[in-house]
Amino acid sequence: MEPIIHEIKSWLLEAGEQIKASERQQLTIFEKTNRKDLVTNMDRTVQQFLVQKIAAFDPDARILAEEDGYNELTDLTGRVFIIDPIDGTLNFVMEGENFCIMLAMYENGVGQLGFIYDVMQEELYWGGRGIGVYQNDLQLSQPVNKTLEAGLLGMNGYLFAHNKFNIRTIGEKSMGVRITGCAGLEMIAMLKGNHIGYLSNLSPWDYAAGCVLLTEFGFFYSNMNGEQLAFHGRELFVAATPKAFQQIHSFLEI
Ligand code: IPD
Ligand code: CA
Ligand code: CA
Ligand code: CA
After folding, report:
1. Residue 244 carries which DSSP code?
2. What is this model's ipTM?
3. Most informative mutation of 87, 92, 118 for ligand 1 (most atoms within 8 A of CB)
4. Which of 94, 119, 139 finishes a domain?
5. How far is the CA of 86 from the centre of ligand 4 (A)?
6. For the whole model, what pTM was predicted?
7. For position 197, which CATH number holds?
8. Could you say which of 26, 31, 51, 148 is the most buried, measured as most Cβ atoms within 10 Å of its Cβ?
9. How does pLDDT run across 212-233, given as a tens digit for each residue?
10. Overall number of domains in the chain
11. Is 137 within any annotated ligand binding site?
12. Atom 15, ligand 1: residue with shortest CA distance
């Protein structure tokens, strides 16, 4: 596994440098489905860069990625790389920070490697099945299995604003709600033990890398019904420490 980890890390650092070198004022911004759903030329450039690197390194691999041309894969048969070229595009455009690049490798549906690169903080969270979770070169230790009452809970802004699925009641039971606008940063917050969970509506590229790392640390995750994630289309997403996960599911109103 070592050479591939080294390769992927070097791609992510290079992609991060490209993003940092780009002028925020010079970004080309396109609306996708509505005025809050954006894609920029940098999302597309980073996706193309990573797709080319993967294809050159592993020509047999299949690729699922958020932007045009690669977002139609409906199964995880074989070796599949899953890419979110910029997670938190709205933050990228509006704040110039609080976004990340995510990449995961799955084999026949089983997560093997996950990478979440917080570009502006220059923090790469990575790891994989049986190898632990790291922040740059530092190995992280598994967070405490806290209850809902004992920790901060990350949420998606849309679900919170519209109070979907009784989500505000769940937030009220926690120590406090946090909304970062970036699924990758929410995953990082759980891995560091800063948040006990995350409730959102996500696509496979939003959760693929995070799930590999969450599994390694004993977190539970599912759709809102407590079933396995489909890795196809957008779905409701619950991840939490085992104790908080049970509690959250008991309060969810589907
Ligand atoms: C989005 C962000 C956001 C989450 C959305 C995602 P994108 O990803 O992770 O925090 O609430 O559901 O779609 O579109 O910026 O890659
Ligand atoms: Ca997007
Ligand atoms: Ca995303
Ligand atoms: Ca994205």
Report:
1. H
2. 0.98
3. 87
4. 139
5. 4
6. 0.98
7. 3.40.190.80
8. 148
9. 999 999 999 999 899 999 999 9
10. 2
11. no
12. 88
